[in-house]
Amino acid sequence: MAERFLTGKTAVVTGSTSGIGLGIARAMAQAGADVVLNSFTDNEEDHLLAADLGREFGVAARYIRADMSKPAEARALIEEAGACDILVNNAGIQHVAPIEEFPPEKWDAIIAINLTSAFHTTAVALPMMRRAGWGRVINIASAHGLTASPYKSAYIAAKHGLVGLTKTIALETAEEDITANAICPGYVLTPLVEAQIPDQMKTHGMDRETVVREVMLARQPSRKFATPEQIGGTAVFLCSAAAEQITGTTISVDGGWTAL
What we know:
Elements: E1 10-13, H1 19-30, E2 34-39, H2 44-57, E3 61-65, H3 71-81, E4 86-89, H4 104-132, E5 135-140, H5 153-172, E6 178-185, H6 191-204, H7 208-216, H8 228-238, E7 250-253
Helix pairs in contact: 1-8, 3-4, 4-5, 6-7
């Protein structure tokens, strides 16, 4: 891939002020794309993050606040962006509880943010992509979009749904220069995951290396976290000429989790 092959393209990445989303936004900017960062907050740090990203990679970068739990705001994000050649639906939340104890409001929020927002952003972005004659929809699903675990009913339902939505988008755009794919990460070392390690060490009475290998990565055969940079690199690859015929599928970045 040419180093700056996305110059002239605009990438909108939802939920992108940290973790996987920021990793993807940085990879897109490094490849030359202008970038729109997003989260549900609106403070000085959000806008400075975008400004710093733009300066680092020599691209236009800005921050647009939008609450992905609200359909009108999800649609307005793309409208305000003005252009959307690459749409990365990454925003997501999690809650863990048995089904009979799962708070209905948590179910509704997870489905809204992890799944429904992707429908709304895509609905606005596709006409822009068609006018431009090129587009890439990249949905950040999960290993849990392909398999299940107990106590994560809403998250798993949403991620399975996101994989299905991805396939439908791909079929509706199959004869155009637009692709839609889902990246399915396993455990990724993000600030959110990093913050959980000390508690897990205390709970299990283990050192860091042991708790990571034997508890947190028990289902990830590589016993290694994926990184935001690796997810970003996968997303950029899906925008390359080599990936023009990759559409309607999932790409697992999970250290072998879904091979089990």
